[in-house]
Design goal:
By secondary structure, this protein is mainly beta. It is built from three helices and 36 strands.
Length: 489
């Protein structure tokens, strides 16, 4: 074969092989893969997550800022992500925290790693669902409601002193008493601040209103020219009538657990004063007397040694708390627990002054406001049989007027030094402020507020003392006003 012929044959073979390869590629053979260049990350990411605790919220949310910049709003149902962070330490600061809230930390520093996402969780405990009083001036107070969603609703507006009395069983309305030109009147207002109205418009004075357990009636103490007696009305004030006549003196009503009876102080049975009880139609009116109380209640010549001023039936209906206040004599003011059948009565605070007792929601304990006899005030809890007495704060703390949360885990109280409201676990742990500004006090929980749960050991922000110079009103002991209106022998 000549050289030229061999070259032509080789070229033809190469061309044939190329066609075969193209044909195979058309039949599904992959083309060569192009590998992109490897990119090495140089940044990281930090995500801030809020862990809500307690039963309340901050209506406006909180702010989170990283390294003193990039401030963003942080709410309970959202997170905040900071992208494109350089490796190394970054500091997140939480601010704009509402007074009723406390963060587990205000400042968190975290090391960001290249190419990684890190998460920071901030615990935020907020409380809500209670009404309170606020000073306006020496002659005026108003009622406010801190809702569970963090809003503050002003419930009343106008001149005169006002006192919080009681929530309706369904938590939709609040009873309060108000000073007017012709005496003290009882009013109701809805929890949203609407429909404020007086229940009565008579002359005289009305105090201590209490809702029936089913919310269909209101019982209260009424004083007019005919005497001092227990009146019953519909929730709107209609159909008002005396429980058992107007002679001579009845005061301080408390409902039985089933709503079929009322307990109250009375001067009807040749003794000043007895614990009395009657059915709602005024029948079966009788005193309940206790051998343990006879030596201190009976002597009233020339003046009473002690006077019962406040009554509260337990949630199970078996026990009634009686506050005995000294009239003229050395008797200590104390809260007693007494059986409703008259078989037993015991002081709950030993030889310690106690007043304004509050049953726990479960009825197995009582919260007592106590005093050292001077300027020191504190709180204690005790079982209904007088056992397990425990002072949960010191007299130096100067707090009083406590009220149980609906689940019995937390107590809201008055801080008498700052004139603000605070909260503390029922065992005395994790005390914290809940309000700021002008003087506030007398918290009372809505019975239908969500469960609070115990307060955690989140860092507590210390509020500066209130420097407002409004006069201190006698709201530490509002029952003192009522006592002054109770007739004396």
């Amino acid at each position: 074969m000549s050289e030229s012929t061999r070259r032509r044959a080789t070229a033809s073979l190469i061309a044939s092989l190329s066609l075969v390869q193209l044909g195979c590629g058309a039949a599904g053979e992959r083309a060569p893969t192009v590998v992109p260049p490897i990119v090495v990350p140089t940044i990281g990411k930090l995500v801030i997550v809020l862990e809500p605790r307690g039963n309340g919220r901050d209506a406006d949310g909180f702010s989170a800022a990283i390294d003193g910049a990039s401030t963003r709003t942080l709410t309970s149902d959202a997170s905040v992500a900071y992208d494109s962070l350089s490796p190394g330490n970054h500091t997140v600061r939480i601010a704009d925290i509402a007074p009723q809230c406390a963060a587990s930390a205000d400042s968190i520093t975290r090391a960001v790693k290249v190419g990684a996402t890190d998460t920071v969780t901030v615990g935020m405990t907020c409380l809500g669902g209670f009404a309170y009083l606020q000073d306006v001036d020496a002659n005026t107070t108003d009622l406010f409601y801190l809702t569970e969603d963090g809003r503050t609703i002003q419930l009343t507006n106008g001149p005169g002193l006002k006192f919080i009395e009681a929530w309706s069983p369904d938590g939709t309305q609040l009873l309060y008493s108000q000073e007017q030109t012709n005496g003290w009147r009882i009013h109701t207002v809805r929890a949203d601040g609407t429909d404020s109205r007086p229940l009565t418009s008579d002359v005289g004075n009305e105090f201590s209103p209490r809702w029936s357990p089913d919310g269909t009636h209101i019982a209260y103490q009424k004083g007019d020219s005919t005497g001092v007696y227990i009146a019953i009305s519909d929730p709107d004030g209609a159909n008002v009538h005396p429980l058992a006549g107007t002679s001579p003196v009845d005061f301080g009503p408390s409902w039985s657990a089933d709503g079929s009876r009322l307990y109250f102080g009375c001067y009807r049975f040749q003794r000043i004063y007895d614990l009395c009880t009657a059915a709602l139609d005024g029948s079966d009116l009788r005193p309940i007397r206790y051998a343990a109380l006879d030596p201190i209640v009976t002597p009233c010549t020339p003046a009473c040694t002690v006077v019962p001023i406040q009554f509260a039936a337990s949630p199970d209906g078996l026990t009634i708390a009686i506050e005995l206040a000294p009239g003229q004599g050395p008797v200590l003011e104390r809260v007693w627990a007494a059986s409703v059948d008259g078989t037993s009565a015991i002081p709950l605070s030993g030889n310690t002054i106690s007043f304004a007792g509050r049953w726990s929601p479960s009825g197995d304990r009582m919260l007592l406001n106590i005093s050292d006899g001077g300027t020191g005030y504190a709180m204690a809890t005790v079982n209904t049989d007088g056992s397990s007495y425990r002072q949960i704060v010191s007299y130096a703390d100067s707090i009083s007027s406590g009220d149980w949360s609906p689940d019995g885990t937390v107590i809201a109280y008055n801080d008498l030094r700052t004139r603000q409201i605070g909260a503390i676990n029922a065992d005395g742990s994790n005390r914290r402020p809940l309000t700021t500004g002008i003087g506030k006090g007398t918290p009372i929980w809505n019975p239908k507020a969500r469960a609070v749960g115990t307060l955690s050991s989140d860092r507590v922000r210390v509020s500066a003392p209130n420097l407002e110079k409004t006069p201190i009103l006698s709201r530490l002991r509002p029952e003192m006003l009522r006592r002054s209106l109770h007739p004396r022998p």
